[in-house]
Design brief:
By secondary structure, the protein is α/β, with parallel strands linked by helices. It contains 10 helices and 8 strands. The protein has an 8-stranded parallel beta barrel with strand order 1-2-3-4-5-6-7-8, surrounded by 7 helices. Helix 1 links the parallel strand 1 and strand 2. The protein is globular, with a radius of gyration of 17 Å. It starts with 5 loop residues before the first strand and ends with a helix. It binds 2-phosphoglycolic acid. The site of 2-phosphoglycolic acid has 13 residues, from strand 8. 2-phosphoglycolic acid (PGA) binds next to strand 8.
Length: 251
């Protein structure tokens, strides 16, 4: 089933007040593509200003704490993100899993908390290069998915999965269309096993070195329902052509 495409930017630890103009430019141009859902996941400290600058455009966070509140110095809760104007959050990005030792169980708890608090979730999974070279990419990613998925979803539309091979993030390397197809169709099958018909409605995004030059080919792969875009989401001049490619791929 062809789902409406979803293109989300992940600004990571980039972005200062001066970059709000890029968010404004992205929001303005994305309104020319009403068939595509677009969001920008910006540093937490920019969320409130970004939300005020572009009312109606979807602004998200990049992580939350799994607890709803409490003694967790330096952490940010789902309700805080909502309060600041976010409508979604990334959880389980490989930079959190690797750099902050996040486990599948924590990622799952974060996804459940986010959904409970009314935030949509982009849940990231993906293999490292050695695993792909050993031929174990699909089994490894499915095990990560099993461990990280929230217990339940509501409509399916509040949850997206981002398949992001770690070796493709920020490297300019991208899996072949066949490798993406194999992984996305395996993830789809597992989502349907897990959630029944709702699993057909969960969007599966591809992430890792998505650029204007490769976006159309990637969006053409079956079961690629959008993209999570890092470096190429920082500038409207790079991000808008990716949104346009998503629109084109829907015909
Ligand atoms: P990239 O990052 O597009 O810069 O490769 C993607 C991501 O980490 O979400």
């Amino acid at each position: 089933m062809a789902l409406r495409k979803f293109v989300a930017g992940n600004w990571k630890m980039h972005g200062l007040s001066a970059d709000l103009v890029e968010i404004e430019a992205i929001a303005a141009a994305s309104s020319n593509f009403p068939g595509v859902d677009v969001a920008l996941c910006v540093p937490a400290i920019l969320i409130e200003r970004a939300s005020r600058a572009v009312p109606g455009f979807r602004i998200g966070g990049q992580d939350i704490h799994q607890a709803k509140e409490g003694a967790h110095t330096g952490s940010i809760s789902a309700r805080m993100l909502r309060d600041a104007g976010a409508t979604l959050t990334i959880v389980g990005h490989s930079e959190r899993r690797e750099g902050h030792n996040e486990t599948n169980a924590q990622v799952r708890a974060k996804a459940e908390t986010a959904i409970d608090c009314g935030l949509d979730v982009i849940l990231c999974i993906g293999e490292i290069l050695e695993v792909r070279e050993q031929g174990a990419a699909v089994s490894t990613v499915l095990a990560q998915l099993d461990g990280s998925l929230p217990d339940r979803t509501n409509a399916g539309s509040e949850l997206s999965i981002a398949y992001e091979p770690v070796w493709a993030i920020g490297t300019g390397k991208v899996p072949t269309a066949g490798e993406i197809l194999e992984m996305h169709s395996s993830i789809r099958a597992r989502l349907v096993e897990r959630y029944g018909a709702t699993g057909e409605l969960i969007r599966i995004l591809y992430g890792g070195s998505v650029k204007p030059s490769n976006a159309l080919e990637i969006f053409g792969v079956s079961d690629v329902d959008g993209a999570l875009v890092g470096g190429a989401s920082l500038k409207a001049s790079d991000f808008i052509p990716i949104i346009a490619a998503a629109a084109d791929s829907q015909g």
